[in-house]
Amino acid sequence: MEDPYDFMLGENLLKSPPNFETAHYHNVNGQFKLKKAQIIHREIVNNSNRCPCCYLPVQTIKYPILVDVNVFSNCGTSYKYFKLLKTYFILLSILLQLEYLLHSIIAGLYNLIQNSKGDQCINDQSCKNNLNNQLSILNRFDPENYQDDVLDVLYAIAFIVQLVFIRYITHQTNDYFNVDHDYDSEKTIQICSLKISSINTQWKRNTILEHFRNGMLESIPFQYNIIDCCLIYDIYHLENELKLQIREVYKKEKSRRLTIKLIDRSLQDILRKTVNQFYTMSNSKKYLKFTGSVYITLSDQQEAINFKKQFKRNFCLEQCPRPSDVIWKKIRSNGNPKLQLIKTAIALCGWLPNIAIEVAKNDYILSNPGKSQDQYQINTLLSLVTALILFLSSKICIHTIHNYVKQSFQDSKRQYWKQYLQMNEVIICIMFYLGPPIFVAVYSGEGTRQEKLWRSGGLSEDIIMIILVNAGLQILFTIMDIGQAWKLIKIIYYKYFNKGSNLTQFEANKLFSKKLNFNKKRVDLTILVFQCSYYGYLFPICYPITLISLLIIYWLNKYQFINNGTNQKIQFKYRLSKIMTFMVIASQLGSTQIIKITYLGYTSNQAFNYIYYAKCIILIYLFWIKPELLFKKRTQTNKTNLDLVSSLQNNDLYPKYNPVVNENHLNSLSQQQSSLDMVVQLRLSRQQKYYEALQIKLLREIEELEKSELSTVQKNHIRPIQEDVN
Prior knowledge:
Elements: H1 4-9, H2 20-27, E1 41-44, E2 60-62, H3 79-101, H4 110-117, H5 120-123, H6 131-134, H7 149-171, H8 185-191, E3 193-197, H9 205-213, E4 214-217, E5 220-223, E6 226-233, H10 235-255, H11 260-274, H12 277-282, H13 284-287, E7 290-298, H14 301-311, E8 316-318, H15 337-348, H16 351-367, H17 373-408, H18 414-443, H19 449-454, H20 459-479, H21 482-497, H22 505-512, H23 518-535, H24 542-564, H25 578-600, H26 604-607, H27 610-625, H28 641-648, H29 654-657, H30 663-670, H31 676-684, H32 686-717, H33 722-725
Helix pairs in contact: 2-22, 3-7, 3-23, 3-24, 8-28, 10-11, 15-17, 16-17, 16-18, 17-18, 17-20, 18-20, 18-23, 18-25, 20-23, 20-24, 23-24, 23-25, 25-27
């Protein structure tokens, strides 16, 4: 077999201009009708060709679209996103089916028939006759005399069945729809691990293992079974030393080169041979600065507890985060933290301009009362534009808050920030989508509340446009999001208009790659479900629209996941939390009463009934007093060696996430245990990706420094002499 060092370096990703065919071949269905290398495959074709970049096979048999999502459990936790989609679909379909299908043999048409029999829309001259208005409950909503006990009972039954379903999936460990299943799998590694600080920085890995394996337990010699030990190195020290070394070597090469072309090649060659795991390890004394902290994983939880008692006197021991949650390199904020906080506060107030936009739209409709078809279409278009503005402003708010949280993120406060972000989703949904439309329709402008509701561009069309925009854009962004569209523009620009650019092969490969962020998709999905739950009673057509969109989103995302594949395990860390579940149920509860409160006023004997009070009492009792009846109580049990082994089947230890070096891999290579699988693992390892990205980062930084130095020299060289000026 060839030298593993040559395998590790692989293709020169710093070459410029890049080969777009290679980038296309690696990420997309490319030459000779071969499957792309990054696909999630079921089998590998015998003697398959391999991608020159990552060395993965390109002739594979992929999974069918109808495959069980649990098959993808070995590809990370992304399969839980599809479980969450199914759970949301069932929760909404329970309400839809019970509302339509439970009353009798023809119960499926009950609500639709009753609504279509109404005459409120016909009697109101401002009402726009369309399917949405005619099937709305407001079409039979007489403010003077309205009561439908049958519908209220059906909603109450649906409410109870939803709670029973939630209780079932949270208590059944192996249920197909249980998002909580295996949620704590990686936490087993965390519980059996400890972060040890205040270690002598001169100690090596073997010295640390030898020291901590031998201890005392109640004055009795005890041998600790340490599964793994991961040293933490100073990443900033590594990057700075590599940068200084490359610049020093580059200046020597520069003095012996004459042409710019040779200089460029020399710099890229130096970077490629210097910035990699092998060079770093062979010069570890210079580049690897041990911080005095390690992650140690023991065989079971009880052993970790005994270990902590034994060594806490001489060392600083603390519970470490899950391996995939470790922040190896603290983010250094280039901006002012106070300024970022101000931006976040401004973003949270982004719903206020939306109210002004809604008011301006209503004023325009009042000032243009024409009933021509063109005016109706203009008013409908205004509702569409308003919904798009709400969507855009909410996205900006979410993005700003996430950036602030990312900069403020600390390991010790990780759970706090997760809860904050979940509450933030609820608050944003209320501020941007639930509050402003109804507030403006009821309390602003001239005209009766019925006119503000029915007219073209009124509340009715505003709500439907909000649902359609959020559902439609989620489907569209599943196919191609904004990031992918921007990458496509860059590909066209560099491939056809700027062929002589300094774009590298690594950057070209990145342009063709597609990153799947299921955590971001989950936020959009939750907001859509909130909207449907809140407005579904008022406009029942929201339910079929949302359910159809959920089906499309599910299959499109599954197709994207199978065909775009992943070069690392995709993480989707989410469970059916109490906060989000409560808000989904509470929004349905409020949906049945919001229109009554709006049109009948705040008189309790008109707006509320005994069924509503009963549901409120049940909800408060289950979520605040006895949550264990609904959610399975998470009891702390000791994790044994079998639990740890089971967890390691689908999760990785800390060294695999360490971006600087995975000493376990390098030890195998040094012992000449390398194989084709080992080479593929190295090509796809997090360390390889870190060094590839670092090569580009240092290349651009050194180029900027060279340009600045050259411009300074030129300025000094052409500076006019005072005598010449005179």
